[in-house]
Amino acid sequence: EDRTPTMVNLILDFFGELEIKASVFFVGDVAKKHPSLVLRASNEGHEIGLHGHEHVPISSLSPSEFRTETYAARNYLQDISNQPINGFRAPMMSVVPESSWALSIISELGFLYSSSVLPASSLLYGWPGLPQQPFLWSGGLIEFPCPLLRLFGLKIPYLGGTYLRLFPDFLRRFGLQNSNSKEILWTYCHPWEFDNNEPYHNLSHVGPLANRIAWLRRSRMLNRMRKVLSGSVGPPLGEIANKINKDALP
User: Fold this and answer.
1) Distance (Å, whole) CA 105 – CA 127
2) How far is Cα 133 from Cα 162, in angstroms, rounded to an integer?
3) I need a surface site. Which of 48, 83, 245, 249 has the fewest CB within 10 A?
4) Are 223 and 101 in contact (CB under 8 A)?
5) What is the pLDDT of residue 72?
6) What stretch of H or E contains 143?
7) pLDDT of residue 204
8) Rounded to an integer, what distance in angstroms lies between the CA atom of residue 185 and that of residue 172?
9) Of 89, 82, 77, residue with least CA distance to 52
10) Element (H, E) at 166
């Protein structure tokens, strides 16, 4: 069963309730199956970004495949949303040294910013050593790295996804209290993370542990996200990227 429309509409209703304007990164093939979801998100004032043509790691594609698919998906989203598609988020934060060839392609295709790296070690994809504040890639592409909390020598991406679902709530509060003014703090979620009724099945491109984790504590996700968004909330990432002073970025 394709549960995408039910869950995306639930999240858009939730954003409307809180009067939140989000950056909504659509997977290209999902957008083609459900163009009405793209149109609704755009009409309600959300920024539309691209989350890859398919939800697969960049490293599973050749450069030519990535270029062709990303070009087509971006154009499709621009046509249907009637807004420029300036933001790119790699599926699974899969911009890592082995797939860094993709960065020049992302820039050449006209994206203003990427939000695609986890600057720490991870069970799936991470790039330890990168800055935790916004920075520029060599081609001029702005990167908004995933926010991290430093605790007991570890770097924890505490503000979204699996980590927000599974970790104690005090980590989120502690992380926000100890963040610095140079960071751009963003939260993230996937529609399926709110879906308590989805039957268990094996996900592709992840191992057995990550597959099991994907089903844990979905019932708490809506309440967790409500807590994250109940305070002061900034604009979508695209608005920040348009106003940021590139000369001031490392």
Assistant:
1) 19
2) 22
3) 245
4) no
5) 98
6) strand 142-143
7) 73
8) 11
9) 89
10) helix 161-166
Dihedral through CA 195, CA 52, CA 30, CA 26, nearest 10? Answer: 70
* Nearest to 70, CA basis, from 34, 41, 27: 27
Could you report how far apart the first and last alpha carbons of the chain are, in Å?
45
| Per-residue pLDDT at 205 | 67
DSSP code, position 75: H
Residues 152 and 125 sit within 8 Å (Cβ to Cβ):
no
pTM higher than the cut 0.85? yes
What residues of the chain score a pLDDT lower than 50?
none
Question: Dihedral, CA atoms, 188, 57, 213, 177, nearest 10 degrees?
Answer: -30
Give the pLDDT confidence score for residue 139 in this predicted structure: 87
Residue 57: what residue type?
P
pLDDT value at position 211?
Answer: 84
Can you give the pLDDT at residue 123?
73
- The pair of three-digit structure tokens given for residue 77, joined into one six-digit string: 């989203």
Residue matched to tokens 């926000």: 176
pLDDT for residue 70: 98
**Beta carbons of 4 and 36 less than 8 angstroms apart:** no
Residue 117 and residue 96: Cα distance in Å, rounded?
Answer: 7
In order, the DSSP letters of 45-72 are TPEEEE--SSSS-GGGS-HHHHHHHHHH
Strand partners, 136: 142
